Amino acid sequence: MNAQQALKKFLVPPEKVREYFTYLHCANIRAVLDPAVPMLPSTLEIKPPSRKPTINNHPMKILDRIHLRAPLKHLACAVALGLGAGTTHAAVIDISGTNINIDTVVGAGNTGRLIGDTSTATSAFTSALDLNGYTLTLNGGNKNGAISGNGVVIVKGNIAGSTGNTYTGTTTVSGSVTLQKTAGNALCGDISVGASASLNWSYANQISDLSNMTLSATASLALAGKADTIAGLTLATGALVNTGAGGVLTANSLTVAGVVQPGGTYTSSNSAFVTGSGSVVVLPAGTSYEIWASTNAGGGAPNEDYDHDGMSNGLRYYMGAAGTLAAISPPVVTTAGVRTVTWPRDPSAIASFKVQVSTNLSTWTDVVPPNAAIDESIPTQVTYTLPAGAAKQFCRLVVMP
Ligand SMILES: [Ca+2]
Ligand SMILES: [Ca+2]
Description:
By secondary structure, the protein is mainly β. It has two domains: about 50-280; about 290-400, no CATH class. Helix content is about 10%, strand content about 35%. The chain is built from six helices and 33 strands. Strands 11, 13, 14, 16, 18, 20, 22, 23, 24 and 26 form a ten-stranded mixed β-sheet that branches. Strand 31 and strand 32 (about 380-385) form a beta hairpin. Helix 1 (about 5-10) packs across helix 3. It is elongated and about 75 Å long. It starts with a helix and ends with a strand. Bound molecules: calcium ion (CA) (2 copies). The site of one calcium ion (CA) has 6 residues, from loops.
């Protein structure tokens, strides 16, 4: 029986596909996948002999379901997933085999999906995957394909390749996983690193800046000297961040053992959860100038005056609701011969500042906190004590959001 005869036979009784395919050698599979007859009409299970054949260069449209079992080695063709006319099932590729590479999946769209390996076996892919709302489990082997769409990714093997993943949804990490994307992010969405799991960095910026990452008590991160920025980091007691030589993990927030930690730099010398010579940097809480300005100042620069009221955007941001024209030029208060000036401050503003002093309004000298003359003990204000001596002095507040 040649391939065309086999094809005719299984097209007539599709339920016989598996039976006929047991007769087909690799060469015949290739013929069946001829572009002239690219559609596989029904559930198809390919169990080729141990020679590990390659299906090459023939676009294949899967209308229903295909199981790719070991030892099929390489599906080097474009695979289109989708519903065909008159069918009722979403197309599926189930790569429950071992070491299967699929070069291209096209048209995953709304109806097709590709199921990752759910067994303990190794699977690999180089295709682009659209999660399409489904769960993808990545076991051992390199996962070079770009994963997109919304779904759940369970990571048990290394992530590699040169095209970043963009999926949304959640990520669960178990086992030891090395992140090897040479461009883009390896992991996206909110990430849970499970018991005894470890995440290892081969390159910088493997995690989406928008990801919140949670480590269980026996989980660990190994930055290996690389830098990355994430949204939030939550550590159970016992979880470790090994920075390696100078690695830096930057986060907008840090929670350790259920307690929210303040902004700052966490190192092995001040924090039990850090090892290595690098650090975990937690940005100060609050609203950045960029976010504030996008809402309140048309995205303008700090030195511009968006509403033309004589007060710069930067000062308005720094002083918040208490910021008025009068507040920019507060009176000098003299108490027992000590002269002070107090400016309002919004504690949610993230900005450094300095005071400048002058005796002639042309030459200004910086007074940079921390400084004994500057009192920040009240979060809603900054008080500067003018130096004794000169009869006439001027001072001004400069903010640097
Ligand atoms: Ca990042
Ligand atoms: Ca203004």
